[in-house]
Specification:
This protein is mostly helical and 135 residues long. It has three helices and four strands, in the order E-E-H-H-E-E-H. 52% of the residues lie in helices and 10% in strands. The strands form two sheets. Strands 1-2 form a two-stranded antiparallel ribbon. A two-stranded antiparallel sheet has the order 3-4.
């Protein structure tokens, strides 16, 4: 680059001129004589293992089955009618055939409401897993 001195004595830089070859290329591109090739970006699909995909599908099917069973259980629990007159009873039996039985309607109401809230929470967790599931 050249520098010129002003009349007041300070140096000033002079812009370099554009080379004629570059200028000619730009002119030809503007006119359309030269076409600029654009790079094409190809997205490669990842190779999916068939066994893994089937396994994921089975997992999704299992989640759907769990949700279905929970929905049925909640429906049955909602239909359950416990009355104050002592006509309903609650049984629990273990593997040794020992039983717990009560007809206390307050206790039955407490157990069924807790069971219902637990089932509804589990159902919402499973539904969230199904929505976020990727095959």
């Amino acid at each position: 680059m050249e520098t010129k001195t002003k009349s007041n004595g300070t140096a000033k830089k002079v812009n370099a001129t554009v080379k004629k070859g570059v200028q000619k290329k730009l002119t030809e591109q503007a006119i359309g004589k030269i076409t600029v090739t654009e790079k094409k970006v190809t997205v490669e699909k990842p190779v999916i293992n068939l066994d893994d995909r089937i396994q994921k599908f089975e997992k999704l099917r299992g989640l759907a089955t769990q949700r279905e069973r929970l929905t049925e259980t909640l429906t049955e629990l909602t239909k359950f009618n416990y009355n104050q007159d002592g006509s309903s009873s609650f049984f629990i039996r273990d593997s040794r055939h020992l039983e717990f039985k009560t007809t206390n309607s307050n206790f039955i109401k407490l157990v069924t409401s807790h069971l219902q809230s637990t089932l509804e929470q589990r159902k919402s967790e499973i539904e969230e897993q199904i929505v976020e599931f990727e095959l």
